[in-house]
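Problem: given the chain below (92 residues), write out its structure.
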Amino acid sequence: MCPYVKDNVTGIVWVLTNKQIEAGAKAIAEDMMLPGGGRKKLSRVVSDHLDWFDAVEARGLTWADMSRLLLAAGAHGSDGGTIPVGTLSSTV
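Solution.
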């Protein structure tokens, strides 16, 4: 079972450790990368990681925190900086 999976029966979101949060951010960053240096659209990546977003929100991270965390893990916006908070929150 993935460490940030929401239990579909109870609706409970597992509380993640810092290492699990970082691992999830790295997984998202890796999923964004295409061979040859391109990157996938955020909307195509987010759907596979919705449980991670639920879990980090349950840990108290804001959209700005998530955006900075994703940048630190290697996921960035089209300008090379953080993914804009509005873009991230509306995509998720």
